[in-house]
Amino acid sequence: MGSDAHLSVTHLVLTNKIRMRDGQRLYPVHRIYCVGQNYAAHTREMGGRPDRDPPFFFSKPADAASQSSAIPYPPATAELHHEVELVVAIGQSGENIPVSEALDYIYAYAVGVDLTRRDIQNQAKKQGRPWDMAKGFDYSAPVSELVPASEVGDASHLGINITVNGHQRQHGNTSQMIWNLAEIISTLSKLVTLRAGDLLFTGTPEGVGALAKGDEVLAEIAKLPELRFKVV
Ligand code: MN
């Protein structure tokens, strides 16, 4: 190692904060957890068996969450996929949370897109290697403004939709989740202590597909602000 290496603190972002809908409050992102294969039809399109294989978790770095209207096409892929998802923002710490109390830990909701380098993921699956570079790259977690849970109410039967250049790609309903929101929170809290600032991406319905530079993406969930971005 050279002796002149230095720490460039001007580019060190200690906390990634995302906006709430009121335009005032910011939500500091602590961690991002994602549920894999939580809608049966998507599990089947990924080659899984929803009757036999339960959903599972993976994660992305906190700074992958982005509210930029311009999302860069990432390097090292020729197959960038969209996965539209309901995002839950946790508001307080908890471990071993019972299903019956789990919804009390939700501070807010948002619409998110779990961007995926599908070619890297397929290669990792074949080789039995980690998914990190398929899922956890820069700008891989676009999210809308957050809305307090008290303003959303019941989130268990919301239409979820994504269009690319005006053409519908995915359409479903949060009622189609295999693990519902309370079960996701309870299950995850038995693996890690949940903290305020944790974002949970709750899985995607079927119809995932490729994005290209120049695509205009619109992700929508009833009761929540639109998420719009252009792939640049
Ligand atoms: Mn996903």
- Report how far apart the termini are: 36 Å
Strand order of the largest sheet: 4-3-15-8-9-12
Structural class comes to: alpha+beta
CATH class: Alpha Beta
Largest sheet: 6 strands, mixed
State the CATH architecture: Alpha-Beta Complex
Q: List low-confidence stretches.
A: none
Portion in strands: 25-35%
What multimeric state do the chains show? single chain
Number of discrete helical segments: 5
Domain unit count: 1
Radius of gyration: 17 Å
Nearest-integer average pLDDT? 95
Stated plainly, the CATH topology is called: Fumarylacetoacetate hydrolase, domain 2
> Which descriptor suits the 3D outline?
globular
> Order of helices and strands, N to C?
EEEHEEEEEEEHHEEHEEHEEEE
Overview of this structure, please?
By secondary structure, this protein is α+β, with helices and mostly antiparallel strands. It has one domain: Alpha-Beta Complex (Fumarylacetoacetate hydrolase, domain 2). It has helices spanning 40-45, 118-127, 132-135, 149-152, 181-189, and strands at 16-19, 26-29, 31-36, 56-60, 65-66, 70-71, 80-82, 84-90, 106-113, 116-117, 141-142, 147-148, 159-164, 167-173, 198-201, 209-211, 216-221, 227-231. The protein has a six-stranded mixed beta sheet. Strands 6-18-17-13-14 form a five-stranded mixed beta sheet, with no helix packed on it. It is globular and about 55 Å long. Bound molecules: manganese (II) ion. Manganese (II) ion binds at residues 34, 83, 85, 114, 201, 203-204.
